[in-house]
Amino acid sequence: METIRTIQGLRSKLAGLRRERETTVGFMPTLGYMHEGHLSLIRAAKAQDGIVVLSIFVNPLQFGPNEDFAKYPRDTARDLKMAEEAGVDVAFVPDVEEMYPTPMRTKVSVSEVSERLCGASRPGHFDGVAAVVLKLFNIVQPDHAYFGLKDAQQVAVIEQMVHDLNVPVKIVPCPTLRESDGLAMSSRNVYLSPEERSQAPILNRALAEAEEALQNGEVRPEQLRQLVANRISEASLSDIDYVEVMQYPSLTPLDPQVTPKQLIVAVAVRFGKTRLIDNRILDLERMPSHV
Amino acid sequence: METIRTIQGLRSKLAGLRRERETTVGFMPTLGYMHEGHLSLIRAAKAQDGIVVLSIFVNPLQFGPNEDFAKYPRDTARDLKMAEEAGVDVAFVPDVEEMYPTPMRTKVSVSEVSERLCGASRPGHFDGVAAVVLKLFNIVQPDHAYFGLKDAQQVAVIEQMVHDLNVPVKIVPCPTLRESDGLAMSSRNVYLSPEERSQAPILNRALAEAEEALQNGEVRPEQLRQLVANRISEASLSDIDYVEVMQYPSLTPLDPQVTPKQLIVAVAVRFGKTRLIDNRILDLERMPSHV
Predict the structure, then answer these.
(1) How many angstroms separate the CA atoms of A159 and A166, rounded?
(2) Cβ–Cβ gap A131/B102 under 8 Å
(3) Coil/strand/helix, residue B150
(4) Which one has a higher pLDDT value, B89 or A257?
(5) Whole-complex ipTM
(6) Residue A115: closest CA among chain B residues belongs to which residue?
(7) How far off is chain A from B138, nearest CA to CA, in Å?
(8) Per-residue pLDDT for B286 more than 80?
(9) Binary contact (A102, B163; C-beta < 8 A)
(10) Does the beta-carbon distance from A135 to B165 stay under 8 Å?
């Protein structure tokens, strides 16, 4: 694996690899502090692409002024070791100066899909995500880009942007990976105190119950929402940011007149200072009550 | 020359040409209704690139609600004939449905450089330009893209966007072409009545006088601005939208403490319902008074 810190260096390395291998490029943009979820994206890329590129960049543009940019967990040496062992060909590790050498004047905003859920709680967050992902796509020019569905709204925002701007990249959404007790893997899980950590799996349990309720015929979104919110509230350290039931993949509110093919139940919950997100995408057409 | 109306068709044609010719792609996005100015861009591309692509698309996104989208002059048959004679390899002529199959949710805005001059008179115009140019770049994936400097602010906006988003395209600005009486070539010139047409060359004369004044030592921007505005006002049918003297290429106001390397004197003037723009980029370092 080669580790490259400059845009020019990366472009020239990839041009060489493309000439040599005549294959596709798979790409995973990450904030680093990797876990098994990231490794599953790398495995998905390895299965499809002959050149696998990973970026590690904690993007200041997607953090709000009161968010955790400065204290976001970082361990690049460990990340690079994991990436190499997983078979990544090129790790792109630019610093902030390399990515933003001059004040950023170009803003990319995706309306509708960005506005609810985390978009409402984190104003400007998805503009920052869209801009850095577009920059990285322009730098790497991958054929496929892999994203975890734990950040389902991020995936939806990027898919909308790629569609609207005709970006020549295929987005590959990948399933959320979970700890053995069901907690969705996240770099931010390291922030949790032991007691918070022991309560955090309530998110997954509540979502599983919503899925079960749906399978048992409960299709009313407000009831599903309440069920999830009530269950999460049982955890004494939980502080709900949102629990929402929306159409998927549009992330628009449900229309009472129309049954969508897919729902997403999405939650964001604080435990102390740590904000965790999770979701379940529910396929209404496959539900037995719907047949 | 091949004329292609779909994105998929264009991508596959260009993939084939790239494999065959192993050369660079030069691209000119246009609104059509071509004139000698467009042909000069094609000639610049022919000199540098082995594959030359021209697009003709009147982009609704860059016209305001009270602007001339519907009546913008169109003559695609004539355009295609001119493009073929000039040696274009592929003409891309999508319709609005092909470019915007679903409501556009992604907005691209370039701050500062978009805000003054035409950006102030035409709110949203440069957002529409930025979005369609980015879409076309993603569709064509050219090595070089050629733009006329009559639209100097458009060039500056695109260069800022390309820089900020690491778009892998080199922008090639090309000089403004003029009619024999000095009027800058523009598709909109056909709107002018004979009397308006006879007065319109005042824009170029006023800019030439500003250049001469600068060569004679007049470096005070407000004096240059007044000189141009006064001269244009002598034309009885003229109605000045703006006359501005700014730093180039940043298009920021002059800092009285700092002498920039280049100035732009930019004007927008209505003759009847037709709004014309023109500009002069003045190189202060080459001015004799400055040596």
Answers:
(1) 10
(2) no
(3) helix
(4) B89
(5) 0.95
(6) B105
(7) 5
(8) no
(9) yes
(10) yes
Nearest chain B CA: its distance from A176 CA (Å) = 26
pTM for the predicted model, two decimal places: 0.96
For residues B127 and B106, give the distance between their C-alpha atoms in angstroms, rounded to a whole number.
10
Distance CA A242, CA B59 (A): 39
| Cβ-Cβ contacts under 8 Å for B139 (sequence gap 6 or more) | A166, A168, B7, B10, B11, B92
Lookup: tokens for B272: 């009847």
CA-to-CA dists, residue A6 to A10, A139, B41, angstroms: 6, 10, 33
pLDDT at B127 over 70: yes
CATH topology of domain A2-174: Rossmann fold (3.40.50)
Does the beta-carbon distance from B168 to A141 stay under 8 Å? yes
- CATH 3.40.50.620, chain B: domain bounds: 2-174
CA of A166 vs chain B CAs: smallest distance (Å): 6
Q: The domain B187-284: what is its CATH number?
A: 3.30.1300.10
* Cβ contacts of B104 on chain A, cutoff 8 Å: 164
CB contact under 8 A, B165 and A105: no
Question: How confident is the model over B129-141, as a mean pLDDT?
Answer: 98
Domain A187-278 has CATH 3.90.226.10: no
A61-98 residues labelled b (16+ CB within 10 A) or e (exposed) = bbbeeeeeeeebeeebeebbebbeebebbbbbbbeeeb
Active-site residue numbers of A?
38
Chain B residues within 8 A of A166 when measuring between CB atoms:
7, 135, 138-139
B170: helix, strand or coil? strand
pLDDT tens for each residue of B208-229? 999 999 999 988 899 999 999 9
DSSP B178: B
Do strands B51-56 and B25-30 pair parallel, antiparallel, or not at all (unpaired)?
Answer: parallel
Contact state of A106 with B7 under an 8 Å Cβ cutoff: no
Stretch(es) of chain A classified as CATH 3.30.1300.10: 187-278
Give the nearest partner residue to B135 out of A107, A130, A166, using CB atoms. A166
Region(s) of chain B under CATH 3.30.1300.10: 187-284
Nearest beta carbon to residue B106 from set A138, A141, A165: A165
Which amino acid is it at B181? Answer: D
Asked whether the beta carbons of B151 and B31 are under 8 A apart, the reply is no
Task: Give the other-Cβ count within 10 Å of A181's Cβ.
Answer: 11
Nearest in space to A55 (alpha carbons), one of A153, A119, A136 = A136
Q: Report the residue of chain B nearest A131, measured CA to CA.
A: B165
pLDDT, position B205: 98
Instruction: Look at the block and give the residue holding tokens 């905003």.
Output: A109
* Chain A neighbors of B139, CB-CB under 8 A: 166, 168
How many alpha carbons lie under 13 Å from residue B19 in its C-beta half-sphere? 7
- Residues of chain A neighbouring B131 (CB-CB closer than 8 A): 164-165
Nearest CA to CA, how far is B18 from chain A (Å)? Answer: 14
